[in-house]
Design brief:
By secondary structure, the protein is an alpha+beta fold. It has one domain: Thiol Ester Dehydrase, Chain A (Roll). About 20% of the residues lie in helices and about 40% in strands. It is built from two helices and six strands; from the N terminus they run H-E-E-H-E-E-E-E. The chain has helices at about 5-10, 60-75, and strands at about 25-30, 30-40, 80-95, 100-115, 115-125, 130-140. Strands 1-2-4-5-6-3 form a six-stranded antiparallel β-sheet, with helices on one face. Strand 4 and strand 5 form a beta hairpin. The longest helix is centred in the middle third of the chain and has 18 residues, at about 60-75. It is globular.
């Protein structure tokens, strides 16, 4: 199942410049989600991070992973309330992500209990793992 930006905007509350997911490539309830983010030199943070050697900030890679997890929850029909980032564990950044890269994020559910859901997430560029972490989100009633 592929989901375009118009459907993403219906699920996630994020908007430019903080929407960090362009498309859902694959979604399987109970198994996981694969999304993509095209990293362009026009991103608003590149003039300051770092002007001579632009690198996509690691914290934004984690945010893109968290948004992928939010999309998973929304596509499962569970988005009756907001989910807030509750924890990021074991984050590792293995290679820099640069303008022109296509960031592919895969997130798999790792358990849920009482409105809290955890995911194992990994990010790739050209099939090479560039980052990984465990993300936990907590449901907050609207």
């Amino acid at each position: 199942m592929s989901v375009d930006i118009n459907e993403i905007l219906k699920i996630l509350p994020h908007r430019f410049p903080f929407l960090l997911v362009d498309r859902v490539e694959e979604f399987k309830e109970g198994e996981g989600i694969t999304v993509r983010k095209a990293v362009t030199v026009n991103e608003p943070f590149f003039p300051g991070h770092f002007p001579q050697e632009p690198v996509f900030p690691g914290v934004l890679i984690i945010e893109a992973m968290a948004q992928a997890c939010g999309l998973y929850v929304g596509l499962c029909g569970e988005m009756k309330s907001l989910f807030y980032l509750a924890a990021v564990e074991n984050a590792r950044f293995l290679k820099p992500v640069r303008p022109g890269d296509l960031l592919i994020i895969k997130a798999e559910p790792a358990g849920s209990k009482l409105g809290v859901i955890s995911f194992n997430a990994k990010a790739y560029v050209d099939g090479v793992e560039v980052a990984r972490c465990r993300i936990t989100a907590a449901q907050v009633r609207k």
